[in-house]
Amino acid sequence: MSVGPAGPPPHAPVACVRHPDRPTGLACTRCGRPSCPECLREASVGYQCVDCVREGGRGVRRATTVAGAPPGVRPLVVPVLVAVNLLVFALTAAQAGSIAANFDSDLFVRFALVPELAAAGEWWRLVSSGFLHIGPLHVAFNMYALWIIGRDMEVLLGRGRFLAVYLLGMLGGAAAVMWLQPGTIVAGASGAVFGLMGGLLVAVLRLRRPYGQVLGLLAVNLALGFFVPGISWQAHVGGLLVGAAATAVLLYAPPARRTPVQAGGLAALAVLVLLAIGSAALAL
Q1: Domains of the chain: total
Q2: Is the pTM of this model over 0.90?
């Protein structure tokens, strides 16, 4: 009877492919490579190694909204905008010593939109005026509308896209005021809010939802601008048109090229609005 060198016992553990110093009797159910417990993750069938899990994740298309935003994101931009507007109103009221006559404050006078002053170089008024309001009813109405409409639009568009629509709507309203309402003092977030209303109409059309209520909301609010003294219908219409156009760029961009189309479309729209403001300034 001859005795040879002893070999490894049958079914002896082999080393983990990621940790050669760790013997293991386990293996990935996808690639079959030996893996230690630290390198395995529970899958729908058995356990897969971390490499296979990572590779599989690359091929999984993550769910997004029609605008390309991650679903279920909690609104953040809307409450910040509401807080900023309320803070600015409180500051103007404190300076003026009156809530009803807060427009007598130095802050209001320096930052409200006066087309001739904006054309003369005080360009910041185009934006700063969107955070000023005349009296408590004005700020309350705009902030209520921003809160109700803005939260759903921010979830649909995503934070960055939502802020872009808001600011473009604000500038669109300012451009309309520069062209159509010289010789006045204009303030309020109405241009931006109407931009969101226009965006909301585009959204319900894109999602094929009933749009009768949205049209009714738009009609009533636009009518107020034409029949109630002291309301700038020009800012409303300008914001509405630009906000609707910006939202259309975001929602109708082809998914395969969504990011470059959205970025290019918003940039082109911004250039057009700025050109409109510049040409109005030259005409004043």
Answers
A1: 2
A2: no
